[in-house]
């Protein structure tokens, strides 16, 4: 079974605040505008068991005209739901977009994550790798911290 991580309480509280602000139409970058150029979106995906829509706030990685989303806290519910549904709704401000998502293969995901960490991703410490880590370490990391490619329908 894939390793999961316990999400700290402050993250749950921050997520509630972020969800509230994003639902109100604010366009946030990074967690609460403090970190870099990582636009925050609401990602709504159908629950794999209930079929009900589930919404989380996520930072989108934008690189070379492509968009990616990574799981800082491992194999959590939104990851399982996204793997099952393979599509989601992204909302930012008043703009809503239905997207297809594809989990990247290990080697491709490792390259995306390595470039993101080297560019100073503020979430990188949660992945357990640094800019100096080997490609093999990144490949091991993406096994428990998947990266998804987000494509417009």
TrEMBL record:
Keywords: Membrane, Transmembrane, Transmembrane helix. It comes from the Bacteria. One of its GO terms (molecular function) is oxidoreductase activity. Pfam families: F420H2_quin_red. Coiled coil: none annotated. The chain crosses the membrane at residues 20-44. Signal peptide: none annotated. InterPro entries: F420H2_quin_Rdtase, Split_barrel_FMN-bd. This is Nitroreductase family deazaflavin-dependent oxidoreductase.
């Amino acid at each position: 079974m894939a390793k999961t991580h316990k999400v700290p309480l402050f993250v749950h509280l921050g997520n509630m605040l972020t969800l509230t602000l994003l639902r109100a139409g604010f366009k946030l970058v990074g967690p609460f505008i403090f970190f870099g150029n990582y636009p925050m979106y609401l990602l709504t995906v159908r629950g794999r068991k209930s079929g009900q829509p589930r919404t989380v706030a996520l930072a989108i990685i934008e690189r070379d005209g492509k968009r990616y989303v990574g799981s800082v806290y491992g194999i959590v519910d939104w990851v399982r739901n996204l793997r099952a549904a393979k599509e989601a709704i992204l909302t930012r401000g008043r703009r809503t977009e239905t997207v297809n998502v594809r989990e990247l293969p290990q080697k491709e995901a490792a390259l995306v994550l390595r470039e993101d960490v080297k560019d100073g991703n503020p979430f990188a410490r949660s992945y357990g790798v640094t800019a100096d880590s080997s490609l093999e370490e990144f490949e091991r990391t993406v096994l428990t911290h998947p990266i998804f490619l987000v494509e417009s329908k």
